[in-house]
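haha ok so turns out i had the wrong file open the whole time. this is the CORRECT one, sorry everyone. sequence first:
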Amino acid sequence: MRMIASLFVLFLASSLLADEPKVHRGLPYTNMKNERQTLDVYAPTKGDNLPVVFWIHGGGWRVGDKASVQKKPQGFVGKGYVFVSTNYRFVPQVTVKEMASDIAKAIRWVHDHAKKYGGDPKSILVMGHSAGAHLAALVCTDARYLKAEGLPLSIIKGCVPVDTAVYDVQKQIGSIGPGRAAMYIGVFGKAESSQKEFSPITHVAKGKNIPPFLILHVSDRADSKAQSQMFAEKLKGAGVTAQIVAAEGKTHGTINADLGKPDDKPTQALFEFLGGVLKK
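then structure:
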């Protein structure tokens, strides 16, 4: 009996290990030797032509790291996705334009190398939290960033920004106190023209192949709620599918940390959304 129990434990352990994502860390997406321009790929141990989730971390456009993914890799890989988490450069060393360009370059790399990791280059889904949510929405609405990398917006099958309050940068700066406004001005600049250029809402228009959006926000965070609703209405007005999920009982931190957990309601809504856009 003891031998049978030991064999069962070994079998169970090997089965769990087989389900763990195969991780490829620190892959450069440019020719520059810069840790801020690398990404990690979490790939299933088997399967081909799987959809690819491209994740952008938050951190106020100044800090953060691709390794901060909590349970997301297991959650997505377990559902049959390849999961990619990217780094990008920060202000003040670079501008928001250069940050968004980093994201586009990373997406280009994913497009070119997806098949090596079991992914489908034609099924890329872009997501991010906080500052990463802003960058995700910007790259998925302002086609110039992907165009510079030789890619059309149509390769993005869905976009999921998680709890950002800067779909309209100028409006956000004008609606908050001077202390918080100074932080945003330090990122986006004082000029109204730059604040407008880096606002995803500016670039929403019909006929651009903007992907469907699922917008997640903390239910009782007033500024992200208002901005999410405003952005969704602009998307819908341009004929773009846009859903909003207000996450009850979450904070700006936990909406991110819990994403990928099976009992998490925003995660459940996310997988339902992904299933819908991938069928199309």
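The longest helix spans residues 2-19.
again sry for the mixup
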